[in-house]
Structure formats: C-alpha cells, structure tokens
Amino acid sequence: MSTPAGRFAPSPSGDLHIGNLRTAVLAWLFARATDRGFLIRMEDLDRVRPGADVRQLDDLKALGLDWDEPLIRQSDRLDAYRAVVAEMVDAGTTFECFCTRREILDAPSAPHAPQGAYPGTCRDLTEAERNRRRAERPAAIRLRADIASFTVHDVLHGEFTGDVDDFVLVRNDGTPAYNLAVVVDDAASGIDQVVRGDDLLSSAPRQAYLATLLGHRPPEYAHVPMVLSERGTRLAKRDGAVTLTDLAAHGVDAAAALSSIARSLGMAAPSEPVTLETMARRFDPAALPREPWVFVPPE
C-alpha cells in the first residue's frame, strides 16, 4: 500500500505565478504537518510548454520545497487511464456522447440544473442511433451517473454538496479528462489529502463520487483561497511581475517572495523574513485566512 501523501499538481503550460506558489506552499505545509509524504505530479495531458516543467520545479526548490520521488507525469500513465475506462465500459457505467459544446449549451436542461450541465442527450441512444452518430463525429465517453449530488468534507469549508452530472471521462480526441485522471492518479499514488485553490471546490463532489464508484476512499480536501489581481480577477501572468523570474527583475528574490506569501497567510509580521521551516512551526489550518489575497506586483 502506498504511503499516505499530499500533492501539488501543476500543468506545465508556463511559469508558476505567486498564486500557484502560495498553493504549493500550503499543500506542502498541510502534508508535512500531518506526517504525510508530498508528491509532485505534472498534469501534462495537454497545454504543455517545453521547459516549463523544469522551471516550475526550480521555482519550487527556490522556495525550499522538497518532495518525494518519483515525479509523476500524467503523460506516462495513459495505459492506466485506458484500463480503468475499459473496466467501466464493461460494467455499463459509461456511455458514448457525440454532442458538441454548443449543442449542450443550447439543449434544454433539467429544472434547477446548473448552467452547462449535461442534459442527457446521448445517454439512452439506441445502437442504431449510436452507429449513425459515429459516422458523423468521434464520441467522447461520459460517466453514467446514478446520483445528482454528492457531499464531501473540506477542512476549510466543512460539508460541501455539489452537483454530479454525466461528466466526461475521455474526450472525443481520446485524451483522458481531468476529472478521470486526477482520481485515478490520486488513488494509485496513495494521495489522501488534496490541497488546491477554492476555484476547484465545485469539482470535488464529482471526483469524490467517481473515486467511490471505483472503490477508493475520497481524499481529505482543503480548498484554499485564491490570489487575485488588483482588479479583483483571478491572478494571471498578464498582471505584471507575478512569477519568481519577473519578481527577481524587480529586486524581489525567492526568500522575499516566500516571506510575502507567509504574511498573506498570517504567518509573518510585516517586513519579517521567514523560512519554510518557520512557517511549518507556525502552521495552523484553523488560523488560515478565508478571504482571497490581493497581490500587488512591484512596479
């Protein structure tokens, strides 16, 4: 059995910004404070920029983060995803879907269903109808959900109930979908603690339900507040000096960036330099802020 662990799972599509790094620090603190292992997983099934993974790992090391081997890459695990989907297809818990995004958005939805929820168009097609649609476009594979909602426990948010629809497991180009890959990977790696941005809280019920369906215990969740720009929008690279490389060009080194993260979490006094070890001694999940951090880049 794998050692219980937490994880940080970036997509190597570019350099990590201060918000990504703050989440990584929190994931490390949660794991180490509970004597868990800590793993890095590159979610590289799409949107990969050459060299971004190396720069991301270098930035994490610059902050003082360490992790356990091996480094996991989703692109190395395609056979594992295919095997899980094949078992689900055989069990009758999936169906082929030929809908485009536009067709889903334009289709009438069930009462009280969230916007964009799958309306069930292809759920009960006949074999003849499926054969006709296969000739028109490749099929995605969707979960045949037998519930409408699922409840998870979050360390920061308490009990959270979210919608579960017939979400995509495999896209119509054959790429495993995010919700499938993370569940399969977490279970295979012994991940029983997931710390990530609270923009993903609504995904947790779907993923926890899928984990349960596959015979796995859902992880403990901690969805932490986002980092926002001065405009109140989700922080992005276009917001100025937000990566370690850009901050360094403005005289803010990795140690100063870490101390800024610590202050945003209430773990450092104004102007106090701190190390990751200091943050680990001061870490208390109950004392973490619940509101977003507005980051103002240096000019």
UniProtKB/TrEMBL annotation:
Binds 1 zinc ion per subunit. Pfam families: tRNA-synt_1c (PF00749). A motif ('HIGH' region) lies at residues 10-20. Its EC number is 6.1.1.-. ATP binds at residue 237. It comes from the Bacteria. GO terms for biological process: glutamyl-tRNA aminoacylation; tRNA modification. Residues 7-295 form the Glutamyl/glutaminyl-tRNA synthetase class Ib catalytic domain. One of its GO terms (cellular component) is cytosol. PROSITE patterns: AA_TRNA_LIGASE_I. Its cofactor is Zn(2+). Zn(2+) binds at residues 97, 99, 118, 122. GO terms for molecular function: ATP binding; glutamate-tRNA ligase activity; zinc ion binding. Keywords: Aminoacyl-tRNA synthetase, ATP-binding, Ligase, Metal-binding, Nucleotide-binding, Protein biosynthesis, Zinc. HAMAP family: Glu_Q_tRNA_synth (MF_01428). Catalyzes the tRNA-independent activation of glutamate in presence of ATP and the subsequent transfer of glutamate onto a tRNA(Asp). Glutamate is transferred on the 2-amino-5-(4,5-dihydroxy-2-cyclopenten-1-yl) moiety of the queuosine in the wobble position of the QUC anticodon. Belongs to the class-I aminoacyl-tRNA synthetase family. GluQ subfamily. This is Glutamyl-Q tRNA(Asp) synthetase. The lineage of its organism: Bacteria, Bacillati, Actinomycetota, Actinomycetes, Mycobacteriales.
